[in-house]
Structure formats: C-alpha cells, structure tokens
C-alpha cells in the first residue's frame, strides 16, 4: 500500500494524509476500471480494505464528490460518475482552454529535473502494457508535462478533468489502430518539444492531441453511437 507521505502517485496527485490516501486509492480504482461507471462506493468496505477508520474514507468520498468523480443519489449513496457524451464534450472544451496554456507555462519554467521526468515518463508509456498500466503511464506523462506550472490548483484541476474523461477516451485507443498510432506520435512529439524548451510548439501539440480525441467523440455522437 502507498505511504501517505509518498508524494506523487500513479494519477499524478500527492498523498499527504489518510483521507488523501483513501481519495487517491479511489481515483486509481476509477482510473484503472476497477470501479466502473455507476458502481457504488461502499465506505465500510473501503475502510476495511485500507485498514483505516471510516472517517478518512468518508472525507475522501466527499472530496471526490466535490471533484465530480463521484456523485450521490437521493439516498446519499455515492457512485462513480458516468458522463454523457455532452459531459465529455464539455470536459474536452475546458481542457482545451486550460491544458495547452499550462503546458506552455510549464515548459517555459522547466528544470533539468522536470525535463528528465518527461523523458522518463515517455519511455514508461511507450513500454507500457495495454490497460491499467498504459492508463497510469499516460496520466503520468501528461502530469509531467504540466508539473512546472506555477501553483498547484491549475495542475490539480486539469488532472481532475483527466480522471473524469480518460477512462472513456481509452476506448478510442484500444479499438482504433489509426487513432492509437496518432496518439502515440503526439505523445512523443510533445515530450521531445518540451525537453527542447519549445513551449509554443509543445502547447500546440497538446491542443492537437486533445482536439483529436474530441473530434472522435463528436463523430460518435453524430453517428448516435454515444448519447
């Protein structure tokens, strides 16, 4: 089990307390598909699994509801957010407004350490097995791309939006070889540009990467594959 003081985790978010550990565990369960859309989250079961009291678990569930990863029904039961096509389209519109600028700022502020981390995460991603391993590596690369952004709220907001959308975007990666090849090329290009300090170019590659996924989603909506 992860150490609560271990710092950045697979989803790129820091763990600093028992409630943060519980929240990060839930994020990873959602992100990997272990917890699926509309599946209920049971407070007592998770507390037992983590070996902690129900209080930090309750706080974690509340925090993830605030972030939009969990939702409560009229009985107060928490379940995994299941976005509609419209929800995902909105998420990608917001990400297109935020993420390229965050990458531009992060690359401009880059250090030797942040550059090395981008290179390392690209290598991990390119060697990752499909499924949960690839998903974790994908999130880690995108987190590394914005790690040098000033402040913490913008990176955390972006990663929260990614957590809401990536489990569904992965279906494009797994079922469409052409889309998968394009995404892989984008990942390499953005990492190379970031390492070279090409802030505007890296930002545009990230924007193109997001537009590619959003366009694929728009096509599915138009064909009434997803509503």
Automatic annotation (TrEMBL):
HTH gntR-type domain location: 16-84
Keyword Transcription regulation: yes
SUPFAM superfamilies: GntR ligand-binding domain-like (SSF48008), Winged helix' DNA-binding domain (SSF46785)
Annotated Gene3D superfamilies: GntR ligand-binding domain-like, Winged helix-like DNA-binding domain superfamily/Winged helix DNA-binding domain
Pfam families documented for this protein: FCD, GntR
Single GO MF annotation: DNA binding
Domain of life, per lineage: Bacteria
InterPro entries the record matches: GntR_C, TF_FadR/GntR_C, Tscrpt_reg_HTH_GntR, WH-like_DNA-bd_sf, WH_DNA-bd_sf
Keyword annotations from UniProtKB, A to Z: DNA-binding, Transcription, Transcription regulation
Entry-linked PANTHER family: GLUCONATE OPERON TRANSCRIPTIONAL REPRESSOR, TRANSCRIPTIONAL REGULATOR, GNTR FAMILY
Protein name as catalogued: GntR family transcriptional regulator
Species per Swiss-Prot/TrEMBL record: Actinophytocola oryzae
